[in-house]
Amino acid sequence: MTPRVNHTASRNRATSVTSRRDPGDAALARIEAGEYGECVQCGKKIAEKRLELLPDTRLCANCAT
Ligand SMILES: [Zn+2]
Questions:
Q1: How far is the CA of 10 from the centre of ligand 1 (A)?
Q2: Over residues 4-31, mean pLDDT
Q3: Where is this region: Disordered (predicted)?
Q4: Which residues surround ligand 1, an ion (CB under 5 A)?
């Protein structure tokens, strides 16, 4: 019976999950993967400034107006 070993293992796992789930990194990875940042109407890239203001937008400034 070695309960201390179990405790340490689960703590280590929790730490690595937390560090891999940084929200800023996730957003950047999605932009680089092209999952968002492209206009669904014309297919052009949405300006980074616009995405910063409206992270959920699917339309570029041209199509949204
Ligand atoms: Zn567009």
A1: 47
A2: 62
A3: 1-24
A4: 39, 41-42, 60, 63
